[in-house]
Structure formats: C-alpha cells, structure tokens
Design a protein that fits this description.
The structure is a single chain. By secondary structure, the protein is mainly α. Helix content is 71%, strand content 0%. It has a domain at 65-246: MetI-like fold (Orthogonal Bundle). It has helices at residues 7-33, 52-59, 66-94, 102-110, 117-137, 153-175, 180-187, 192-221, 224-227, 236-243, 251-292. The two termini are 42 Å apart.
Length: 293
C-alpha cells in the first residue's frame, strides 16, 4: 500500500535542503570560481573556464611558500593523529577501571572543548614564554631563541582540541566492549599484551580509524588554537587566512579547493578503511563460527 506524505514532510524536506545548501553553498561557490579563466575575478559571473589559477598556485603566491605550508600542516597533522590515537586508547583502557580522581581527571581532560580556542592558544603561548624565561635565567636558551614551534607549542595546542574527541570516542567504545573476549583469551594462556594485540585491537580498529580521522582533519583546519602558539612558520590555514587580505585573484579559491579536496580525500580514505576493517572482522567471525560447527 502506498503511503501518502503529509504537507509537513515537504516543508521539512525543503528546510533540510536549505540547511544543506547553507552548509555547503560557500564551499561549492569557491570550487566553481576556482575554475575561472585568466580574466576571472572573485565574484560571479564567471569569465571562462580553465585550470589557469591552479597553475598560478603551483608557481607560488608571491612571498608565501604555499607548498612549504602544506608540508608543515601535513606533518603536524600526522603527528597529531598518531598521538591522538595512542593517547585516546590508553585513556580508554585506563578509565575501564575506577580510580581515585577519575571523575575529576575526565572533566579536566575534556574542559578544553568548552574553553574559547583563542584563550587556550594564549595560555599555551604564555606557558612557553615563561619556560623560555626560566631557561634563559639558567643560561639554557634554545638555539632559535624560543622553545615555541610546530612540534612543541603548536602540537600541544592541537592536542587540546583533538584528544578530548578521541577520548570520548574510546570511552564509549570500551563502555560497550564485552570483557568475555579478553577472559577467553586469558583462559587460553594469552598474556595481557597478546590479549590486547590479537583480541582487543582488531575489535576496536574501525573506531581507531574514526579517531584518526578526527585527529587529522581537526589539526589540518585549525586556526584559532594555532594563531598564538605556533611560534615560527605558519601552518596552511594561517597562511590561507593571511592571503585573503593580499591575494585578490581566484588563485586563493584554487588553494581553498585544493585544501578542501584533501580533507574530503582523507575522510573518504578513512571511511573506506573503517568499512574494510569491519567487513574483515565480520568475515573472520563468520569463518570461525563455521569452523566450530
């Protein structure tokens, strides 16, 4: 029997379509304008269609080394991803058992999610400046003059943003984890490390992919927490923010299209990897079930 939809359905569907357009409209606009011809401007209507501005981007945008900024953001994103995954798993394992101060530690760990990003950035920058003053007082000043840098203060700033998300995911995962699998492994003589490596890790691996996705994409796009804490050469988002006031050609749109494409590629790769790991786990469980029959 066919079901007749009420007028409310069409109103809500139209509202949802407008909401999606509001979210992705600016990104779609930048994507379209980045393919303008050599005479193109920053607004519609388009003047031709070509890859001219991607060629301009390849050659560089004035005094800004875009490719070096991309490399810095990619390196930082990879380090943040690895640390986020490792520390989130360790935190998830630790919070499986109650210990003194666990509730306070949990709230402290996720407090940075509700703190203004610029305040966190300024606080980290202040801490490193105080640390530099202490080092100088003892004649141990860093060679560069400051301990702030991409893999020190900027790394810490990014981890204050990515770690709470990773922790929350892993706490949910381990809250639903069935300890019977670990008990079975221990009954068969497995050591704690063997139990984690061969039992726990394969089960939680699809969720680790999700944590890694959060870690890289949040680091790749971060501006506010990096602005005061990076210390040295800027990351790509900061360079892109600076270029908006100096570059007045669609080359800035070409850069935005490229960075957005990287984000979508990472998301697609992550989702594909998660689906592959989940199917592999289900296939292994199915084969094990057939072997016991």
């Amino acid at each position: 029997m066919s079901e007749t939809r009420s007028p409310a359905f069409y109103y809500l569907a139209g509202f949802f379509a407008l909401f999606v357009l509001f979210l992705y409209g600016p990104t779609l606009t930048i994507f379209i304008l980045s393919f303008q011809g050599p005479e193109g401007g920053l607004t519609f209507p388009m003047r031709g269609f070509s890859l001219h501005w991607f060629g301009v981007l390849w050659q560089g945008l004035g005094v800004v080394d875009v490719w070096a900024a991309i490399a810095r953001s990619a390196k930082l994103g990879i380090v943040v991803t690895v640390l986020t995954v490792v520390l989130s798993v360790m935190a998830g394992l630790a919070f499986r058992r109650r210990f003194i101060g666990s509730t306070l530690l949990f709230y402290v760990a996720i407090a940075s999610l509700i703190l203004p990003s610029i305040v966190v950035s300024l606080g980290i920058a202040l801490e490193f400046r105080i640390f530099d003053d202490v080092l100088k007082a003892y004649g141990l000043a860093p060679p560069s003059g400051s301990s702030m840098g991409l893999f020190t203060s900027a790394l810490g700033a990014h981890l204050t943003w990515t770690l709470p998300f990773g922790m929350l995911i892993m706490l949910v995962v381990f809250n639903r984890f069935n300890p019977a699998y670990e008990e079975a492994a221990r009954d068969l003589g497995a050591t704690p490390w063997q139990t984690f490596r061969h039992v726990v890790l394969p089960i939680i691996s699809p969720y680790l992919v999700g944590v890694a996705l959060f870690g890289f994409t949040l680091s790749w796009d971060e501006i506010a927490r990096t602005s005061q804490a990076v210390g040295g050469p800027n990351t790509l988002p900061l360079e892109l923010q600076g270029l908006t006031s100096t570059v007045t050609t669609p080359a800035i749109y070409a850069l935005g299209t490229m960075t957005t494409t990287v984000s979508f590629l990472v998301i697609g790769l992550t989702l594909g990897t998660g689906l592959y790991l989940r199917r592999r786990r289900m296939r292994g469980a199915s084969d094990a079930g057939k072997g016991t029959i």
